[in-house]
């Protein structure tokens, strides 16, 4: 299995050595972790992790909640371009739009999102997209740019919206919240999405799956997400693990 979306640089995981987190994940069958940045300092740290630990690959980018920082200094723009070009950077992310209690104006968010999409296209890197209460704008922007490799992370949209995303040729990834009993929409989406078009993630340290809800999540818990997907689709967990592993390896360009 591959945890396609983790934040090892955030507390409380930041207090631990990544090696300890990797070891626990390995015990649960996790082979690789995509460690995802939310801002420039995160991106630097994520690349440092990837250089030091072969089982970690980095995603670098600026989250919509930090979008107003990207154009504040031309050096930040240049640094993000440099970081994305490093061999340890497997993707650009997480980027996107967040209209839920986000002080950054939607117009700024969209400008930053589009700039980063163009950067991903120029560098032939896949895109990890964050979408919170911004379905229409996210869809229209992605449709316009026709990015070849996109995954919408922490997925849980309606069947109607999911069909539109799949029609664009994109992927979705499910996290621990798919195990939450009240997350009916997310569970319906997991049933609907073809197995070969989905991936697994923890979004750690957030949204620990049942029975660890309320605790800090970590990559070792991605097996619980796989088990829930298997339950929802009424297929063996081994099939979920094998197929999602193959999908993630191709998407992020990971070696065996």
Structure description:
This protein has helices spanning 18-27, 40-52, 74-84, 106-123, 135-145, 159-167, 184-192, 222-233, 237-252, and strands at 2-6, 32-36, 56-60, 89-98, 127-132, 150-152, 171-174, 198-200. The chain is α/β, with parallel strands linked by helices and 256 residues long. The protein has one domain: Metal-dependent hydrolases (TIM Barrel, Alpha-Beta Barrel). An eight-stranded parallel beta sheet has the order 1-2-3-4-5-6-7-8, sandwiched between helices. α1 links the parallel β1 (2-6) and β2 (32-36). α2 (40-52) runs parallel beside α3 and α8 crosses α9. The mean pLDDT is 96.
Features:
256 residues, alpha/beta, TIM Barrel
What would a concise description of this structure say?
This protein has 256 residues and is an alpha/beta fold.
Count of strand segments: 8
Quick one: overall form? globular
Cα-to-Cα separation, first versus last residue = 11 Å
Q: What is the alpha-carbon Rg in Å?
A: 17 Å
Strand content: 15-25%
Summarize the amount of helix as a percent range: 40-55%
Stretches with pLDDT under 50, minimum 5 residues? none
Mean pLDDT: 96
Q: For the largest sheet, list the strands in their spatial order.
A: 1-2-3-4-5-6-7-8
Main β-sheet: number of strands, strand sense, barrel status?
Answer: 8 strands, parallel
Structural class: alpha/beta
CATH-derived topology: TIM Barrel
CATH class, named Alpha Beta
CATH architecture title: Alpha-Beta Barrel
Number of domains: 1
Name of the CATH superfamily? Metal-dependent hydrolases
Order of helices and strands: EHEHEHEHEHEHEHEHH
H/I helix tally: 9
